[in-house]
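Q: Predict the bound structure with zinc ion.
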Amino acid sequence: MSEHGVESLLSRNGRAVLAAVQSRPRCSRADVARATGLSTSAVSALVSSLIDAGLLLELGTKPPAGGGRPSVSLGLAPRAGSLIGIHLGHADLRVVLTSLDGTLITEQRHVLDVDHQPAASLDRVARSTADLVENADLDLGRVLGVGVAVSAPVVGSRQLSSPPMLLDWGGVDIGGILAERTGLPVHLANDASLGALAEWRLGAGNGVDDLVYVMLGEGVGCGLILGGRLHTGASGMAGELGHLAVVPDGKVCRCGARGCLETLVSKRALVSALAHTLGPTATVESLLDLGDAGDRGARRLLSDAGQVLGTALAGVCTITDPRLVVVGGDLTARPDSSNALLAAASQALDSALPPVASHEIRVVRAQLGARAEALGAALLAGSRAGGRVA
Ligand SMILES: [Zn+2]
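A: Predicted complex:
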């Protein structure tokens, strides 16, 4: 597979040019030179060969911001290349095939005990990747890379931080195994970080360069876009909001501490609170069904969760000063139920922010649903295709 891989098709600098065009709509050759650090003559030569290869298009001229000659803006040719995004959830995995701008081409989802079956999960991912590329009748040589969203902090681009939150995945070289199985460059990041990337580039946060994304699922994930860049921190721990202590003598969390946010706000916490009235068969779907039907108990649970979340977000927002909080994940799967949660979160955030906060921070529901993290993984693969960080 490797002799047909991307390395044989594009030079490193060629991929850097494609990545620059991908992340900057209608950019010029000069914009690409600034973004990549390559000389203008090198960029001109690379752009010419990428146009000849059918990967780039000239879109027309645009007037320069500061006067002078108009420049020709560049864009990706349709199907210039594609990306694979993978989300390793706890109980399912999703593999998406997208174009270079993150537009979904096709996808597969498999229900699997991902938490406890690393080998079977990676095997399924590798087979899905090959199937998707083959079924879409695409050339594997134009798949520029694979991104993987994992529900654990990630160090650099390849390693789960130690000790991993996914206990059965400790020591598993996800990047290395998938690179060998697919023949493609593989990059890892935390799933909530990649959800943030996707909602920023493709969803509810499009065009907002300072936003906080919260993923309410098995736990509480959080991703940060600051100044138009994904911020993951020195050790991949940025946004580990779920393990912020919010109740001094609260329940013991899976991380070993007491009173973490996720002991009150996660899917697991809300379903177990509902078990008192619905019995042990309660699920998140039954909670959301009741919430949509206007059940007072379910609405109470959702708005209480929103209130705790909003108060916890006040700290995050005081430090990061975002314009927008985007809330996604399984608990926001239905618009009516999530309204109860979001309205309470917005109100609690507003009243807990210090008076010096000079602008309103909007709290909105995510737009990409359960697909956000996999799409973000594909975008990560695209942004790293040229060796650059998102
Ligand atoms: Zn915890």
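A: The chain has three domains: 2-76, 82-195+373-384, 206-367.
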